[in-house]
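Q: My labmate handed me this sequence with no annotations at all. I'd like to see what the chain might look like in three dimensions before we decide whether it's worth expressing. Could you predict it?
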Amino acid sequence: MSELEELHQRIASCTDCDLCRNRTHAVPGEGPPNAELLFVGEGPGFYEDQQARPFVGPAGRFLEELLASIGLQRDQVFIANVVKCRPPNNRDPLPGEIESCRKYLQQQIELIQPKVIISLGRYSLAWFFPRDTISKVHGQTKVKDGIYFMPMYHPAAALHAGNMRSVIEEDFKKIPAVLKRAREAPPAQAAPVPEPEQMRLF
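A: Here is what I predict for the chain of 202 residues:
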């Protein structure tokens, strides 16, 4: 059994926060253990909780459409979430729940070593860049800890607000160029992208 599989077994039986009480299944994530692209959403919803798989509901279908639009299939990327169990009634995850799960996403990143991480939605963005807001930084490339990042709106946003669909589609079109850059220029050698607060100083 690989280290990633062992980690996912630990996630499946985790009782570190109260979300374990109401779940049907924990949802560790899925994809190739050496995926170049890692997508990080917020948390499992109803369908994900039932099937123990991430992004299998309507937002997941849209994500698969988006991947197809840049010539990728779902099984070529790794998909995970900030929290691994469904919050009751799909409410937002609480700070303590996110903190309890933090170690799992950190270990997934260390084991997979993706070239690019795409954060989906504001909770995923805040996990990596707590001072940023999604409306200001979506579709922009950042470098942190030797990895390229691109924050994006969550695919579910397009299901609630039709005008968001084109914004997400346009952001998604930028992913191949970012991946190409990540392959050609290792992030450790790339100049870090200034944080917005630093940028205001100039």
